[in-house]
Amino acid sequence: MPVDDNGVLTDEAGPFAGLDVDEANPRIIEWLREQGVLVAHVDIVHSYPHCWRCHQPVIFRATDQWFVSMDKNDLRTQALKAINEDVQWVPEWAKNRIGSMVAERPDWCISRQRSWGVPIPVFKCAKCGNTVATAETFDAVIKLFEEKGSDAWFTESPASYLPAGTACEVCGCTDLVPESDILDVWWESGVSHTSVCKKRPGLRFPADLYLEGSDQHRGWFQSSLLTSIGAYETAPYKAVMHCGFTVDENGHKMSKSLGNGIDPAEVMDKYGADVLRLWVASVDYSQDVSISQDILKRTSDTYRRFRNTFRFLLGVLNDFSMNDAVVEWDQLEPFDQWALVRLGRLLDEVNEAYDNFKFHHVYRLIYDYVVGDLSAVYLDALKDRLYSDAPDARSRRSAQTVLANVLEVLVRLLTPIISFTTEEVWQNYPKGLAESQDHPISVQLAGWPERGNFVPLIPEHEAERIEKRFEVVLAFRDEVTKALEEKRVEKAINKSQEAVVRATVPQAEYDVLTDFDEGFFEELLIVSKVAFERGDELTVEISVSDLDKCPRCWNFRVLGGNPHHPDVCERCGDALDAIG
Questions:
Q1: Which among 70, 94, 284, 295 is least surrounded, fewest beta carbons within 10 Å?
Q2: Which pLDDT band holds residue 410 (cuts at 50, 70, 90)?
C-alpha cells in the first residue's frame, strides 16, 4: 500500500493521494462500486494486529530496513555449530529448541523507527542517498559517544566530529545526514558480551553462564549468540540455563487482577529469606513452577528439619576437637563407617548435581539424606552412645568424628541455598571444633568439601562391601520396626527400650547379622536385647525385658555391675567414674 510515514497515501494512490488512510478507505470502496468491480461490502469480526501500547490497529508497510544476513559469511552455520558442539544447554532439550529457531529464522532486521534509542552509526548522503560507513566514520562516532554519550548523535552536527573531507563515495557530496533508525533492543542487550564481559575487570569472555527465562531462546540467548559469532566467531557463553515462570498451585499465571500473586517480601517477612531460597532450589526451574501458601508451609517444614539437624550436631559436638578426639577410619564403629560411606555418596552426587545446575536434585539428595540416613536411622540410634558413654570413650568419639564430618559437609553443601542459616551455624560452631581446624570468619570463605577433605578416601570396593552389609542390616531393622509398632498398638510395650527381640533369619542373612557385635543391634534398634537363630524365613518375636530400667540411660540392663554406682548399669557406672 502506498502509504508514507504519516499514514497518508502517496502519489502512487492516484486520486486518493494526500488522504489519510482512515479517510481514504470509504472513498476507495465507493470508487470500486462506481467502477462496477465491488464484489461485496460487509463488516466482519476477525483477529487483527494492534499496537501493544496505544491499542490502535497497525498498518503493515514495506520500508527500507537494516538487516543482518543469516547466511552471508556462514553466520547461521557457525551459530548452529556453536549450539550443538560448544555450549552446554540446561536443560539439555533446550539445545534442540534454540537450534531449530536459528535454523529456520529469517535474516535479522536490526533497525527500528522510534524517537529515541541507540542509533545505527551510519550516514546518508543528502544528495544521492548513498550510505556512508567507513572505519574512519565509525572511529569518529565512538570518540563522540565516549565524550558526550549516545545522545550526541541526535544533537551534534556530523561536521563537528567527522574527519575533515569526509564525503559520499558516489557523488562526492559532504552534506551527510545521520541515520534516523535506531538499533533493535535485542541487538543492544545482545552485545553485553562486548560492553560488559570484555570490558569489566574480573569478568570473562566467554561467560561461564547465561541465565534467563525460557522465552529468551528467541531473544537474548539468540541475539547474544549471533552478535558474538559475527564479531568473534565464538559463542559468548559456555553454558546457558533457562528458567520457567511462576504460577499458582493451579497452574495459573500470577497477576494482580486475579489476586493470586505472592509478594516475595511478604514471604520473607513471614518465613524468612532462606525458606524462599529453599523453595527456589526445590523446584524444577526448567518448567513453570508453582508456589502457594501451602507449598511454602511445606517448604518451611523442610527448612525446620535442616535447622534442627544443625542444632543437634552443634550440641553433641560441644566437647569435640579435631586435634585430639578424632578416631581414625579403621578404628571407627561399623555403624559410623557406614555413615561416612553414605556421606561420601551424598557428596559425590550433590557435587555432580551442582556442576550440572540441577539444584532441585541437590535439594532432594540432601533432603533424603537428612530425613532418611540421618534422622530416621543414624542420629536416633546414636543418642544413647552420645549421651550415656563416657565423654572420652572411643565409641563416643567415633560417633563425634563422623558427626563433625557431617556438619562440615552439610554446612558447605547447603550454603548456596540457605546461606543465612549456614552462616548462623558457622558463627555458632563449638569452640573446640572451630579452633582445631581452618575456620575462616564466614562460611562463604570456607573451602568446598571434596573426597579426602572431611570424607575419607575410602576404596570403592570397601565402600560397596559396607553398603551391601548394611542393606541386610537395614532390611532387618525395617521388619523389627514393624513388629515393635504392632506391640505398641497392642499396648504390650510402651517404649522400644523395654523390648527383647528374638529373630530367626535365613543362613545368608544370619551370617551377615551375626558378624556384628550384639550391642550394635541394641543400639540400632533401641531395644534391650537382640538374639538370632537360623531359620528358613525371617520371623521376629517381641517380648518385654525382665531386667530393671537404668535410671541414667533408660535401657533395661543388669544394675549394680559397678560397685561405686550400684543403682545404674555397668556401662553408666563406668561413665560416671570417668566423669568423676
A1: 284
A2: very high
Intervals of CATH 1.10.730.20 along the chain: 281-458
Distance separating alpha carbons of residues 191 and 497, to the nearest angstrom: 69
52 pLDDT above the threshold of 90: no
List, by residue range, all CATH 3.30.2320.20 domains of the chain.
477-546
Query: For residues 376 and 526, what is the distance between their CA atoms, to the nearest angstrom?
Result: 12
Over residues 215-238, the pLDDT tens digits come to 899 999 999 999 999 999 999 999
How would you label 519-529 residue by residue, b for 16+ Cβ within 10 Å and e otherwise? ebbbbbbbbbb
Q: Which of 240, 194, 198, 245 is nearest to 220 (CA)?
A: 240
Cα 358 from chain centre: 6
User: In terms of Cα–Cα distance, which of 34, 61, 37, 59 is closest to 49?
Assistant: 59
Q: What percent of the chain has pLDDT over 90?
A: 75
Cis preceding linkage at 57, omega within 30: no
**By the 8 A CB rule, do 564 and 580 touch?**
no
Cβ neighbours of residue 452 closer than 8 Å, sequence gap 6 or more:
none
Cα dihedral sign for 62, 63, 65, 71?
positive
Distances (CA, A) of 177 to 113, 143, 149, 163, 476: 16, 18, 19, 15, 87
pTM beyond 0.90: no
What are the tens digits of pLDDT across the range 483-508? Answer: 999 999 999 999 999 999 999 999 99
Cα–Cα distance measured from residue 94 to residue 97, given in angstroms and rounded to the nearest whole number? 5
Q: What would the CATH number be for the domain defined by 477-546?
A: 3.30.2320.20
**H or E stretch at 78:** helix 75-81
Fold of 281-458: Isoleucyl-tRNA Synthetase; Domain 1 (1.10.730)
Cβ proximity of 466 and 512 under 8 Å = no
The three three-digit cell numbers of residue 171, written as one number: 557523488
Strands 88-90 and 237-243: parallel
Residue 469 CA to residue 339 CA, distance in Å, equals: 13
